[in-house]
Specification:
Blueprint lengths: L11 E3 L5 E4 L2 H11 L4 E7 H6 L13 E4 L8 H13 L6 E7 L1 H13 L6 E5 L2 H7 L4 E6 L2 E8 L4 E4 L9 H18 L1 H8 L9 H18 L14 H12 L7 H18 L5 H15 L9 H14 L6 E6 L2 E6 L3 H11 L15
Parallel strand pairs: 2-9, 3-4, 3-5, 5-6, 6-9
Antiparallel strand pairs: 1-2, 7-8, 10-11
Helix pairs in contact: 3-4, 4-5, 5-6, 6-7, 6-8, 6-10, 6-11, 7-8, 9-10, 9-12, 10-11, 10-13
The chain binds nicotinamide-adenine-dinucleotide.
The site of nicotinamide-adenine-dinucleotide (NAD) has 31 residues, from helix 2, helix 4, helix 5, strand 7 and strand 8.
Length: 372
């Protein structure tokens, strides 16, 4: 790619079979990357927020008649929205050489990527992730899909984008809560496998003045390497599930209550509980345990929630187990920057850890119920 060498300090390229990743200002090279693909047309998929707040940064690439705007939120990551995108592409005369450019958070990247990967048996697509979660995680790795019949990501594909362009400028308009959502995944990456990223995070007092470019310089190659080494999640990629076994169970539980918690909050709680499991199982040293828990509290704050009983929680973990063919092993860190996967967990340790978790949340009613 022919970029101005003077810009190398701000422009980073991470070549990958799962889609080359560019880190830098979109104005400085997105159109060059798109031109190099020799596409016939570019069609942009955005949601209502990113259409208003992010598309203006793309200037001539996002011409209004070539943009489809989807309502925002997870509940629109479904086949109906795919239908809207497909109809739009047909109406606009898209062909096999057209490019779908997804400009949005993980919802839009997953949805637009899936729609493009099926349209006319698959046309190229690129991601411009606009949320911290999408920049750090969702846009990288070639997974896409939609929710179906109440199950997350039930219909989907492994299909890499032609490229991913990460520009932290979009974070300027992202609500604080959404920043924390994505940051939970960045902390997870540091804990499970990137000591360099951990060192950067440990210097932070809070999330107010983050050097995002520096963070993505470390986070991007980490997520990319894991995804490349195990694109279909047969082994190593399972380390990314750290915090997610208990996190998903809590998320599913709270979805059925009047007070659902966000995915980021669920992962925060899941990481805390699973750290305690690792410490109790004598996999993780007390010192590393304290350092990680301290960093999570400092950067993400305490989650306000009334936890369910361990019995209720286990119902959801068992549900996950059935869907995974009877095998749910935990992914647990054994030191900062290293993680094991498929670790079986003893019920007693599980109970102890969940009990401890109840002391880490912000609510007067945050104790476990007595039925254990
Ligand atoms: N494919 C994968 O490997 C993978 C990995 C992790 C998560 N995901 C998926 O990612 C999705 C969650 O991603 P998300 O948290 O980005 O959710 P999201 O895309 O719904 O974005 C969250 C909110 O932020 C808004 N937003 C996004 N960018 C903005 C900006 N720059 N300024 C202002 N508002 C902005 C959106 O409109 C939305 O309201 C889930 O569907 C999850 O399943 C996929």
């Amino acid at each position: 790619m022919d970029f101005d060498l003077d810009r190398n300090d701000i422009m980073k390229v991470f070549p990958s079979p799962l889609g080359d990743i560019y880190l830098g200002k979109v104005q400085d090279g997105l159109s060059t990357v798109i031109s190099s693909l020799h596409v016939s047309n570019v069609f942009v998929v955005a949601d209502v927020n990113t259409a208003k707040l992010c598309l203006p940064q793309l200037h001539s690439i996002a011409v209004s008649e070539r943009v489809i705007v989807i309502p925002s939120g997870e509940k629109h990551k479904n086949l109906d929205s795919c239908g809207l995108i497909w109809s739009f592409l047909v109406r606009q005369g898209a062909d096999r050489y057209s490019l779908v450019l997804n400009v949005g958070g993980g919802m839009i990247c997953d949805l637009g990527g899936f729609a493009a990967s099926c349209f006319q048996r698959g046309i190229p697509f690129g991601h411009v992730p606009t949320s911290v979660l999408a920049m750090s995680d969702a846009a990288i790795g070639g997974k896409n899909g939609v929710d179906f019949e109440g199950f997350k990501n039930y219909i989907g594909r492994f299909q890499p984008p032609a490229f991913i362009w990460i520009d932290p400028v979009f974070i300027n308009t992202l609500p604080q809560q959404e920043i924390r959502e994505g940051f939970a995944e960045i902390i997870k990456h540091a804990v499970i496998g990137s000591k360099n990223l951990w060192d950067i995070l440990e210097e932070l007092e809070n999330l107010d003045n983050v050097d995002w470019h520096r963070i993505f310089e470390e986070n991007t190659p980490f997520k990319k390497q894991i995804a490349e080494a195990d694109p279909h999640e047969k082994g190593l990629r399972k380390v990314l599930n750290f915090g997610h076994t208990i996190g998903h169970a809590l998320e599913s539980h709270f979805l059925r209550t009047p007070h659902p918690i966000s995915h980021g909050q669920a992962v925060t709680l899941g990481m805390l509980a699973e750290l305690k499991i690792a410490q109790e199982a004598e996999m993780l040293s007390d010192e590393d345990f304290q350092r990680i828990v301290g960093l999570i509290h400092r950067l993400l704050g305490q989650v306000e929630v009334t936890l369910p009983s361990i019995i209720e929680l286990q119902h959801w973990i068992e549900g996950d187990k059935k869907r995974a063919g009877g095998q749910v092993g935990y992914s647990l860190p054994d030191k900062i920057g290293s993680c094991r996967w498929d670790v079986p967990v003893d019920r007693q340790i599980m109970v102890k850890s969940f009990d401890w978790l109840s002391t880490q949340v912000r609510t007067p009613a945050g104790r476990l119920s007595e039925e254990k």
